[in-house]
């Protein structure tokens, strides 16, 4: 039994494509991969020699390890990660960030490092945050939810009582309505551009169940939801939505909510702007009209070109974002690469994502990764070839209503230049001849 | 506009069921809810008065808060949880645990606190662990994967190169083959009984893609996978499985693997016993026969009644577990409760879960929560009524192959009493007249 040791390729995608890949030997001569290729070449010789030696018999564990066994294989590792594990010390980039230059981290937000993440689930430690008066520390044994107003009964519930109602778990996205704002500066990384979106599995009681329990009067048209934070963050939600898919959520990705996500109880309003999913939920006031609260008059309206404000723009419209390669990434070799990203729609399922590498002149369909769930992040990916030329990478998503993600020009045409929230425009990333990737709108 | 303030119920499920619930006034008189009901009653008066007052106008935020506003609403909260968030300080029970009495936490395992969790995703900090020589600390820049043996090329890959291959994300369960062992003691909590199972979204490169890249010889029948830990943990996997759904996984729930889950690279072998998903993966040796390594001769075989060992029992068969109510939980009121749990099968999708409250004499179908994914945890739930009598709660799952989860008696009949691994028997939980829940097999 024998096999031939061939020179290793530096283009793992080359065999996956019908496009021609560069001469590998020529690529190595050009030294394009720099230090990495060199380091691997140095390592390769003894390991492949060992591979040849061991290939004559099945591997049986430590007995036939190659000679250059690393330190971590020669030694006993650390203990089990109890009580609660944390990321590797090498993952220094996979962290939440505050808006650059922000001095006061209470009325603030932090972004999910989308350019470091994969798939449709965001770890709880990295889910984006937005607070209006900081993160309260709430004792769940003392927390109460009151439901009153146009109901048959006014009721107060403990957390234990809420959790006794039939509960469901659903995977949904959550996005801040200002992700991003219309205004420059637009930021360098995917997190800085649009890091106020995350995905998670949310567990809770369908609000409908509890509303049926307290009984709604015929005149009930809205619910004004109020948080227990210092801002008493308050939003109005149409009763139709409350009876559809809104949750009284107490868990996120399996465990109880994190403090910054509303522990011990938040509203979760699927597909609507994130600020409506009131955190630290203490009160649901059933009314016949919206509250016109501070947060829905002074904030969270859209100033139109004619000077009037568009109010109650609840739904987060269909959107997508390329997360790899994205700003501050660098292509270090020519050949086939993969565009990866996420798409989502507040109106239902994503039905397709197109990608372009030439700034929108030509498009091709990306592959959607299963599962494709309603009002959840959906992963997409598509191969592309880079030969050292400048590229402008773009993605545009479509949802099951037929809506297609717009360009920024189309958005400005529809809403004027003074709008702040609900910017779901196509985000371009520029690839320079050097391979460096930067924000195509900056 | 007015509404009637009625006495609050202590049974939130009562309106969800056709079964009769107890007189609420009578229940409160009996004092069954103890301190909780008292505390709520004390709180209820001023809040409901406030509710009456505020019901005459829509809520407008802080202006019409009830008088007993808690401290956390009167004050500014803490800062954003950057760079990486952690659970609430009140969630002291949602932690991983070592086997009780274990002195040495390297060759060890820790369990997922299933009785505290919801849904089909386990947070990374709580995913169960099993280590044979502790947790190595691996520098991803230095880590390499070698593929050799019956291949056209022997190749060595850096992590950067592996991540450049087309990648996918999939939600799967992972379970230790000894979850639980056949032997007593069986433990008190769901974690102690069967906490070596977790669910996550795994991102990586289909192994098939990389095998096609290096080229398999016709004689290739098995792959012997080896870890870079001090135990050089090594298992053999049939080539058919490797070409089906095995992943070279580098992310879990969106972020890079945690150290205790194989950072920076692990094999993920969906539906097979967890120890085959080799962590800290450094080598794939393509062979024509299994390695018969230490871990598949001395360990991970099943001793049958006739003294022979069953080898290569790869698949984790269909199973379910009631997580709420479960051992150490307590029913604090009579009325309608909800059984909640998880089901999974290494052979595909769960098609149904039955539950029993009378020790298996009668069964009824539970509701499965969407999404129901192949080789992933599936949530189920079913209401039941408790009137202070003794109950024996059970669940039994079925998968798309028609397999039905067995009883322990059926398993012992098939495999004898000396088997250790692959116990997927029905787990009973006993509810005492006091409401206390204990292990029905202990």
CATH topology heading of the largest domain in chain A: Sulfite Oxidase, Chain A, domain 2
- What's the oligomerization state? homodimer
The CATH level-2 architecture of the largest domain in chain A is identified as Alpha-Beta Complex
For the sheet with most strands of chain A, the description reads: 5 strands, mixed
Number of domains of chain A: 2
Helix content of chain A: 10-25%
Task: List the uncertain runs of chain A.
Answer: 1-10, 14-65
CATH class of the largest domain in chain A: Alpha Beta
Q: What shape does the CA trace of chain A take?
A: globular
**SS elements, strand count of chain A:** 24
Strand content of chain A: 25-35%
Structural class estimated from helices and strands of chain A? alpha+beta
The neighbouring-strand order within the major sheet of chain A is 5-4-13-8-9
Provide the residue-averaged pLDDT of chain A: 86
Instruction: State the helix count of chain A.
Output: 9
CATH superfamily of the largest domain in chain A: Oxidoreductase, molybdopterin-binding domain
Largest interface in this structure: A-B, 165 and 162 residues
Distance between the termini of chain A: 58 Å
C-alpha Rg of chain A, in Å? 26 Å
Fold topology:
The structure is a homodimer of 442-residue chains.
Chain A: H1 24-30, H2 34-54, H3 71-74, E1 97-98, E2 108-111, E3 129-131, E4 144-149, E5 155-158, H4 159-164, E6 168-175, H5 190-194, E7 197-206, H6 207-214, E8 222-227, E9 234-238, H7 239-242, E10 247-252, E11 255-256, E12 266-268, E13 281-287, H8 294-297, E14 302-303, E15 309-310, E16 319-324, E17 335-344, E18 350-356, E19 364-365, E20 367-368, E21 378-386, E22 391-399, H9 408-415, E23 429-431, E24 437-439
Parallel strand pairs in A: 4-13
Antiparallel strand pairs in A: 1-2, 2-3, 4-5, 6-7, 7-10, 8-9, 8-13, 10-11, 10-12, 14-15, 16-17, 17-21, 18-19, 18-22, 20-21, 22-23, 23-24
